[in-house]
Sequence to fold (267 residues):
Amino acid sequence: GVLCPTAALALEPALLSKGVPLLVNDTGANHMQAAAHSGIIIRQSLEYWQSCAAFGQWAPNQLGRRAVLAMGNLEYGYDFPSAFIDAFTANGGTVVATHLSDLPQADTEFSGLAEAIHEHQPDFVFALYSGLQAQRFLATYRANRWANTVPLASGGFLGANTPLGAAGPDWSVASWHAATATCSRFTAACDAGNLRVTPFSVLGYESGDRIATAWLAARSTSSAFVTALHAAPRTGPRAQRQYHLASMESHGSHWITASGRPHSSRV
Fold:
């Protein structure tokens, strides 16, 4: 299922009564606050909050200690913006201004962003957008004169929504990257099928592989199948991820990229 893992815990009694496991796919927008659970719900996450925390740790000594945080109203309220802020602040950085786009009283979708950048003169902008709004944000940012002087950094969903041939963010962070060695076979298969490598194609492939591996290993009983699903997933497009049953969280390499060139950072 593609759903919020916290909400999925409400399904636990019904799943237990039938002995049916649920593999939850999610972006990892929120840090799990899971109470005690049976383990019949397993999580496959894109680890978005961990990616943003990794960038917050890395950025102060690489890009500068003053940042403007810009985000869409779909991103506001999740844990991944605060994960960046907490890590950035803990490592000597300061978020000098926060811009929330598309507020009801705003004249335009990105009203106030140019003014915030002009007033605070940050070392970089960290942008958190997704979908079509990510494309509109990129077009707006690149059309302004300060785009050439203030670097644009982003979470992976903004980078993934950059139209082909368009200028994407100067820096981006995610738990996936099409150019990494572990992702090369997956990328080649996508290219052969004329498919673009996206965060959700990576997540779907890894989840399918995890289910198939568990089924081949333990098709005899339901409990053995659940145990096999909890086992450390095989090395997939994102390289090896470590999974923790109690917290329902995973972690591994997070890729910080500059103009498409990957650099590995761990969180």
User: Anything to note?
Assistant: The first strand starts at residue 22 and ends at 26. The radius of gyration is 20 Å. The chain has ten helices and eleven strands.
